[in-house]
Amino acid sequence: MLSIEPIIYIMIFVGVIILVEGVYLTVFGKSISLNSRVNRRLEMMEKGAGREQVLEKLRKEMEQHMSAKQIPLYSLLAAKAQKAAIAFTPQQLILVMAGLSVVAFAGLSVGTETAVPLRIALSIGIGVGGVYVWVSRKANKRTSMIEEQLPDAVELMVRSLRVGHPFSSAISIVSKEISDPLASEFGVIADESAYGRDMGEALKDMAERIDLQDLRFLAVAVTIQQQSGGNLAEILAGLASVIRARFRLFRRVKAITAEAQWSGKFLSAFPLLALVAINVMDPHYYDEVYDHPYFIPACIAVGTLLTLNLFVMRKLVDIKV
């Protein structure tokens, strides 16, 4: 007889996501959460840290996840953790996944009668999957904030160049006048430039690390101007207009496709919700087919089709701008 165990699985998975957020805020504080509007780099310098120390710390945080990409399982998280600028070190994040898997196993042991091997597999899936979903949300939110801040940052650079500041000073001004997450990113570029690194190379590395097309446009524009000359202020002014127009178009496309996105999410979740509802209202509904030899293969086939449905629905509404 089937039970309401799927509800317990969902509750444990949601609890794991909430727990990892609570651990993150408890360990590192709200000042580095994505909702914070503090310029973290300037805050660290105001507390007495030297410019070189701040640069070293921020660069270490920015590079730590991709440098640990060879660790088993962690390769699934490395790129997104890098984009999200997660303050957990790779080792800490792995420990968090292990700890959450133990918590999930305890919850499954108390709330379900699943076989031990299946409980272990589900616990690992919930622990790793919960952290992956949490990191993905952080990465998407941080990327969205950078996209929103970038046009204003480029326009501020244009104004600085037009009043006579060199480009390095324009970058430094942006790092002081805007808020995080973009402020600390530009602050690292300003510090690296002060210590002799090529500005175009630093911008290119930032664009690849954040994986944002508009930042790649900025890096290419600066690199071309350095090699061939030209009026950088006019180039960046045009780039700011293009970025802002792309941002408006993206928001418009997002608004137009919002209904389709929610329809896709509902259609993807409906079979699982229907399964849970049927088992709650009539626990004996599937008794006649539960022992059928085709029951398990059919469940596997349905699960595979539901997974493919998620990818198809996502592709249908993922319109590139």
Can you describe this structure?
- Helices cover 79% and strands 0% of the residues.
- The protein has 14 helices and no strands.
- Residues 30-36 have low confidence and may be disordered.
- Among the domains are: 145-247, Type II secretion system (T2SS), domain F (Receptor-associated Protein); 257-321.
- By secondary structure, the chain is mainly α.
- Helix 3 (51-67) packs across helix 8 (182-194).
- The longest helix is centred in the middle third of the chain and has 47 residues, at 116-162.
What class, by secondary structure content? mainly alpha
Overall pLDDT, averaged? 78
Give the CA-based shape.
Answer: elongated
CATH architecture of the domain at 145-247: Up-down Bundle
- CATH topology (fold) name of the domain at 145-247: Receptor-associated Protein
Ranges with pLDDT <50 over ≥5 residues?
30-36
Order of helices and strands: HHHHHHHHHHHHHH
- Helix count equals 14
Percentage of residues assigned to helices: over 70%
Distance between the termini: 49 Å
| Oligomeric description of these chains | single chain
Gyration radius (Cα, Å) is: 24 Å
Bin the strand percentage.
Answer: under 5%
Fold topology:
Elements: H1 5-28, H2 40-46, H3 51-67, H4 75-84, H5 90-111, H6 116-162, H7 167-177, H8 182-194, H9 199-210, H10 213-228, H11 232-256, H12 258-281, H13 287-290, H14 295-317
